[in-house]
Amino acid sequence: MNMKNNSGRLERLRCSTTQARQTKAPLTQVTLAHFIVLAALFLSTGIIYPQEPPLRQLTTHAASDEDPSWSPDGQKIAFRSNRSGNYDIWVMDADGGNLRRLTTHIARDVLPSWSPDGQKIAFSSDRNGNGDIWVMDADGGNKRQLTTHEGSDGGPSWSPDGQKIAFSSDRNGNGDIWVMDADGGNKRQLTTHVTDDWGPSWSPDGGRIAFVVKNKYGNNDIWVMDADGDRKRQLTTYRSYDGQPSWSPDGRKIAFNSLRGGNGDIWVMDADADNKRRITTYEGSDGAPSWSPDGREIVFRSRKNRNTDIWVLNVLEALQPSISIASRERATTLIPPGKPRTSVLNTAIVEFQEKGSLDIEDAGEIVAGWMSSSLIKTGAFTLYERVLLYKILEEQDLGLTGALDEKTTAQIGKIFGVEAIVTGTVSKFGSTISVVAKLIDTETAKVIASSDVKTTSVDEIPGAMDRLARELAKEP
Questions:
Q1: What domains, with CATH codes, occur in the chain?
Q2: Comparing C-alpha atoms, which of 400, 308, 242, 237 is closest to residue 67?
Q3: Interval 85-101: pLDDT, tens
């Protein structure tokens, strides 16, 4: 097979790979004695099976419903929809009922944002020829234009006191974060980056603004700065796309959209960038998270079955670990003795190294994404996150020369505080594509398990990842 000729197919797979839902570890040949032991273990430790978090679909229209934003009182959700032929701002009750159209212009009205008192909704509109920030009453009345620059302004986010609105603008040649008074006056530029900054999100205490930066490599990362533009700090370092940050109501967490799992999913991290967790693993692309005021749920848009709809996820249950792990130590799982693995490893996955004539951009990163989903399905691994080799080598002096060896891999694991690292190689020589995966112990720098597969078809690679993951899940 000619890998170059299949690059389009791999690209499609990269964008639309089905994300495996977390499933219960298989119970095979369970005797009554095993069951009694497992029951006692459950009662004494509180260890639970992985469960798919409760998920509710709010819209089911054949059109596209996106950009959900929860009202401050928790009773309503604003969103944009093209169900009337072009994008307008709509609002519905939090249970999906009582849909009402708030804007009726022939232009695009998008990205609604509620004022803290729930009385107004700011939004982006190109009704005057280019993107501007507008505001209206929560019932759709009294629409007023706040920005009038010939550049493009969008993505409004209210300050918690309702006195200011942050937004993105390319009025100076590239995208930057700006802030203005809620009446449109006193506009001030907060960022001056040479590439694009966009998607501001104001912290609940009013002291910080999270936003997205497109760096020199062309990928998007989440940053945070003080509300006056000082003390900018990078929170994510993934080499592809992290975006659409949304603060939890208590200011302790940030939800965001990321491609690090292989396709668009909702992730949550601590406000200091620790403890990144993927909370959606469903088929389709998920994005645009918005927290409920009580912090219990996240509303988001999801592209499933060729439609884009609004969904709600119970984030409290989604953030529960699939297996209880204290202080990153090994934990016994609810599976009988024998195979598969009887301990759960807290694991990170490093992008696979590329060899041969692959002719596919980021093939190692794509394969690592597929492997992430396959490892989760085994029930034997808790994934910390995917690690981008180029970024960690930029930040840490690991003395890497040539191929990534076990010692350097173990050092990376120690940096991230995990028990094991999964990495490997993906190569193509002749018509054969080979994938080799290794599970490396962080403490000993030794290979715990390894496996390899060979194929001549790109379509078979995701299934091959499942076979590799099952081999790595077995006890040594």
A1: 4-51+325-473 (3.40.50.10070), 55-318 (2.120.10.30)
A2: 308
A3: 999 999 999 999 999 99
